[in-house]
Design goal:
single chain; 19 helices; two-stranded antiparallel sheet; 4 domains; 475 residues; 8 strands; alpha+beta; 4-stranded antiparallel sheet
């Protein structure tokens, strides 16, 4: 049977499996049944569907996911260049490099792409080439510049994540497995994904990233984004400070317009972008369209924020997709495991721990509120043991420890060792804890004296052989 996984991206930019299906053959009827079941389970259509170049899949996606945008994997198309174009032409020209530069360019407009494509084809006299003419005819389905205005369009441009998922499942299963064995292996692979996701969540919530300069925007981003996304946003903030500068600015009807220079690592200007900023509702619009493509602000917007002394990223530009704790708790609920206990006490304990974790996560960076969850402190008085009878070593050790504590308490010129108060505030010799320590010393000394008396009156055997015989008999 043919295994078909539905692969996406989580808030750590890791592969996540939304579902999977087993079909008998790769026909229109089989694909339609599979997509119908997927839609029935998830109750909504995906915003964008990325598949390889297959006629049956293309027809079914158009019918079942009629509200989704269907794109083709550009890598599967571009990799056919050596097969479709003669070797002499590729060896004597830079056709392959030119096509790659033109196709993978995310910053040009569709009209610019069409002009440069026509110039490239005319220069090499390839206007009659059948395959190049064919892929140009459906360019809207695989060239990224035609998707530049679609939200999240640059998160996935190829089906490489599907290939990664296939590799993951192949590690855990074999073609010789039965259906039951395959389902168990499939569950193991999903557990690995959830484990990786949970480890990244814990790393994000329990560690602090490196921030050498610590500008306010960077500090704010570190508290709201996951670690993977924060590192990318941090790069944009730093590049907005170092590799971008404002060439000119103007204001019209309360909207500030900035012309910002975009430089490379050698600080050479490679492009200019226009950024509009409305201070009344904190609306930002950049011709780079970084937020539209990847879901977080670009370096040009951060450069404008620094100029206008904006210290917090506006809430409208903080999508939940990249936030911490965006997943519901039931995703990592232990009750989803086959070995989870389902008795009443175990269920109550799990629910209690989940609620405590949820409250602690919601009150992050609020120490006053977190303190309200802690129980009231209770003073505990520990008294020395009484009635100990042994050979004296343990009692003597106890006396030595107490005497040492008492000596430290009396000799410390600044802090009382027992009550943790400064000597200037009270007399350590009259401290209640010191009195208790002296009483403990006296009690321990009395115990030591009793032990010494008991030891002296104990009958001893006459010779060592009698002692050995008595021990053997007692044994």
């Amino acid at each position: 049977m043919i295994f078909v996984p539905f692969t996406g991206m989580d808030h750590h930019k890791k592969c996540v499996t939304f579902g999977a299906g087993l079909i008998y053959d790769e026909t229109i009827e089989s694909y339609k049944w599979l997509l119908d079941k997927f839609l029935k389970t998830h109750k909504k259509q995906p915003k964008l569907v990325l598949t390889y170049q297959d006629a049956a899949v293309k027809q079914v996606v158009r019918v079942v996911f009629d509200q989704s945008i269907h794109r083709l994997c550009m890598w599967h198309i571009v990799k056919k260049i050596p097969l479709k174009i003669s070797g002499d032409l590729l060896a004597n020209t830079d056709l392959r490099v030119s096509i790659h530069k033109l196709v993978w360019n995310l910053f040009i407009t569709p009209s610019t792409f069409e002009e440069q494509w026509k110039l490239l084809i005319d220069d090499l006299n390839l206007s009659d080439h059948h395959w190049l003419t064919e892929i140009y005819a459906f360019r809207e389905q695989w060239v990224p510049c035609y998707f530049r205005e679609i939200q999240w369009c640059c998160l996935m441009k190829t089906t490489s994540r599907c290939e990664s998922s296939n590799s993951l499942f192949k590690v855990n299963t074999s073609h010789a497995n039965t259906l039951v064995q395959f389902l168990l292996c499939f569950g193991t692979a999903l557990d690995r994904q959830r484990k990786t996701q949970l480890e990244l969540d814990i790393e994000t919530s329990t560690t602090t990233p490196k921030m050498p300069e610590k500008p306010p925007l960077e500090i704010h981003a570190s508290k709201i984004y996951t670690r993977k996304i924060f590192l990318e946003v941090q790069k944009e903030i730093c590049r907005g400070m170092r590799q971008c500068y404002i060439i000119s600015s103007s204001e019209l009807d309360g909207i500030k317009k900035f012309n910002i220079a975009h430089t490379n690592n050698r600080f050479k200007v490679v492009n200019n972008y226009m950024v509009d900023f409305n201070a009344h509702d904190t609306t930002v619009s950049c011709s780079y369209m970084g937020f539209t493509r990847v879901g977080y602000m670009c370096r040009h917007a951060f450069c404008m924020f620094r100029y206008n002394q904006v210290e917090l990223i506006p809430n409208k530009y903080l999508p939940a997709r990249w936030m911490r704790n965006v997943l519901p708790d039931r995703v990592h609920d232990i009750s989803n495991n086959y070995s989870a206990e389902d008795d009443e006490e175990s269920v109550i304990r799990r629910n209690m721990f989940e609620l405590l974790t949820e409250y602690a996560d919601r009150l992050r960076h609020k120490p006053d509120c977190l303190n309200s969850l802690l129980p009231d402190t209770v003073d505990v008085t520990i008294k020395p043991p009484t009635g100990i009878r042994n050979k004296g070593s343990g009692t003597k050790r106890q006396v030595d420890v107490v005497e040492k504590l008492l000596e430290n308490c009396n000799k410390n010129p600044r802090l009382c060792h027992k009550c943790n108060k400064y000597v200037i505030d009270h007399d350590s010799r009259n401290c209640e804890n010191v009195k208790a320590a002296k009483e403990a010393v006296a009690a321990a000394a009395a115990v030591l004296a009793d032990a010494a008396v008991a030891k002296s009156t104990t009958d001893r055997p006459v010779n060592r052989y009698a002692t050995r015989s008595k021990r053997v008999a007692s044994t």
